[in-house]
User: Fold Flagellar protein FlgN from Alteraurantiacibacter lauratis.
Amino acid sequence: MTAETSSPALSLAESLRQMLAVLETERQALAAMDVDALVLCTGSKSALLSELEDCRPPVIDAECRSLLEAARHQNEVNRKIRNLLAANVAARLDALTRQPGLYRAPQARIA
Assistant:
């Protein structure tokens, strides 16, 4: 295998490793409720997604497939944590205001 044919796979694998690192940092920022770190993670994820769009090898090897699954799993974990935090904040705001749903978007009424 020449360097030219293995380069896209190495680039993809490296980008996926970086994405996993950013997703781990995001998880830690969520746990610490560190808004600044979350903003930085969002920028990093966006940049990495652009890189991943650019490196689409014709065939994804086993290592990259494993990294993709790990990134997908970590992103799903982070999404669940974000949703739990959002629900917790909403519940606390409702309790403070004693008006449930005050901070929710109004629902469309069906006639």
Observations:
- The chain is about 75% helix and 0% strand.
- The mean pLDDT is 85.
- The CA atoms of residues 16 and 68 lie 7 Å apart.
